[in-house]
Amino acid sequence: MAAGVTSREIEADKPMTVSKRHVLLALGGLLLLLFALNEAVARSARDTVPRELMARVRETPGVSVLALGNSLVGVGFEESAFDQAIGAEPRYGMINLGLGNSTPVEHLMLLRYALQHGERPRVLIYGFFDFQLTHPAEFATSDLIGNRAMLYYLEPEYARRFYHLSLHDRIEFEVMRHFPLFVDRTVVWERVELFRRSLEQEGMPPEKTNSMGRANDFSLLEYPSTPAFIEECGRARLRDLIPSVHAIIDQGRAAGMKVIFVEMPLPPEHVRSFYDTQAWGGYRSHVRSMLEAEGAQFIDASHMMPQDSMFADPLHMTYAASKDFSRRFAESLKQAEAGEKVLRE
């Protein structure tokens, strides 16, 4: 032994070895942790909005009207007001399957789910705004979060026919859809985000919110300017209805439904800046002709709620306005159906 060097120092200089047993224990612990997280997320995700809508379908067979669309439909059609105006008992009136932050692909899946579980409504109402019916459905797995996560578990193979993923995302999708930890990852993230927002609001004036979230967030969904919107109208007039919209019409009509597409009411500022332009008029005519060629009806309801006070944010009606709109829409639908019966007789 060299002078001045202890045996302890020599041992410390030796490379550290890890036994196979320690590696297996570490891997086993990691797998147990992932399994526990996976199960915890699966339990927390039982009451996500898409699953709640699916549960409503199972619990209320026999409705006469089915409403589909994004949050404008979810907020815009108030079921009890609609049922009362059309003269239907709540159990046999409208079921509103409007789903926030969604596209026609998810709406098609909800329609199919309703049909598979015995729903046979007489009328299918599909509410839309802007270029929703013609905008190509191109996603990345990072887009399939929140309500769109239903594409992982509700007929995923069938749904894949109606939107595009890159090769990388297709591979990632096939792996992720088998694990709730990935499928419903926003269940965890939304809690973190709510906590972050609560910290951000400390000492600040309260932000305006409604049932859909922060009111200002919805301004991000609008086009930045009228010229930009007009340019998009020009591009959109060259497009066909996207495949999922074709499928909604085909499958709704095959089930014996009258299919009605509704250009939903929007705030006066949105209407003035975008919908009152000549470009949107041309696009609207383009959409109307395509829908009618497929046997669907088109109703322009965008101007039906003409006051700013009727809207809770840049897109969504207030609860009171939704009740009023639902009542008026149901009454007009009832009158139209009565007129059709007279003509048939």
List the keywords.
two-stranded antiparallel ribbon, single chain, alpha/beta, 16 helices, 7 strands, Rossmann fold, 345 residues
The sequence of SSEs as H and E is: HHHEHHEHEHHHHHEEHHEHHEH
Protein structure class: alpha/beta
Strand order in space, largest sheet = 2-1-3-6-7
CATH class of the domain at 48-137 and 225-302 and 313-344: Alpha Beta
Q: Terminal Cα separation, in Å?
A: 114 Å
Radius of gyration: 26 Å
- Percent helix range: 40-55%
CATH topology of the domain at 48-137 and 225-302 and 313-344: Rossmann fold
CATH architecture tag of the domain at 48-137 and 225-302 and 313-344: 3-Layer(aba) Sandwich
Overall outline: globular
**Beta-strand segment tally:** 7
What's the mean pLDDT score?
87
User: Into which percentage range does the β-strand content fall?
Assistant: 5-15%
User: What is the overall number of helices?
Assistant: 16
Name the CATH superfamily classification of the domain at 48-137 and 225-302 and 313-344: SGNH hydrolase
Quaternary state of this entry equals single chain
Low-confidence regions: none
Largest sheet: 5 strands, parallel
Structure description:
With 345 residues, the chain is an alpha/beta fold. The chain has a domain at 48-137 and 225-302 and 313-344: SGNH hydrolase (Rossmann fold, 3-Layer(aba) Sandwich). Helices cover 52% and strands 8% of the residues. The protein contains 16 helices and seven strands. The strands form two sheets. It has a five-stranded parallel sheet with strand order 2-1-3-6-7, sandwiched between helices. Strands 4-5 form a two-stranded antiparallel sheet. The radius of gyration is 26 Å and the shape is globular. The mean pLDDT is 87.
